Amino acid sequence: MGDATSPSPGATTSVGTSRLATPRTAALPPQQGPLSVSPGSADAPESPPGKRPHGPRTQGFALPSVSWRNLPGGRIALVVAVASFLITGWILAGRQTGQAVHVSVGAVSCTGAKVRPADSNGAAATITPRPGMRCVVPVELTNSGAFSVRVTRVIVPTLGPRGTATVRARQASGGKPSKAESNANAVFAFSERLAPGQSTTVKIVLAYRPGGCTSKGELLLPHFPVLNTRALGVNSRVLPDAPLALAHTTGDACGR
Q1: Fewer CB within 10 Å, N- or C-terminus of the chain?
Q2: Is the pLDDT of residue 177 over 80?
Q3: Does the residue 210 lie in any domain?
Q4: Would you state the pLDDT for residue 86?
Q5: What's the CA gap between 172 and 110, in Å, rounded?
Q6: What is the DSSP letter of 12?
Q7: What's the structural domain count of the chain?
Q8: DSSP one-letter code for 222
Q9: Mean pLDDT within 23-39
């Protein structure tokens, strides 16, 4: 017989294994020195919401600040910008000064033709042309600007040597006819310098043009006359609100 404590042949015996207890580790206090983990890693400690993390922060790469004035072309660009500003201001000032010439048309006097004077309602002075007539239109020019202005041209639209109207501008006192520039318009060259506040009067002489034509109704010249001026080295053109009208007559070639 076998021993009672010995296992019988062919029998299996379970052997119990002892479970070892894992000792608990106490929570370590927070480190007081610089952290060895890099920001953004999985092992990095999380910061409480609303608070910035303690410890060193890494900064991105930044270019050194360089003033554009210290660049090779910076000073040149600055000089060009200032020069452009000054030139533009000078041109604007010259144009404003040149266009500050005030034009006032006086009473039209005619021999051999009828004249209806301008009225307070805005109707322009109207000339009824007749063969052999001679009309004088006084035009006062006044410099209302702050600088001197030189009048270089007096232009009478439509009444030039190659125009077709019944009336032709023959003369402008103080001016010389410019044949090279005159065509449908009458152009008179001037060199009249006006100081600030100074005035001068130009008398424009009108004559009858044989074979000329004025359509039915009236031929209105809205700017009588047009001026070319020069101030501060800048050329300008003055279009005065000074109208003159020519009436249609049955003697006109186009009215037959």
Answers
A1: N
A2: yes
A3: yes
A4: 66
A5: 15
A6: -
A7: 1
A8: S
A9: 49
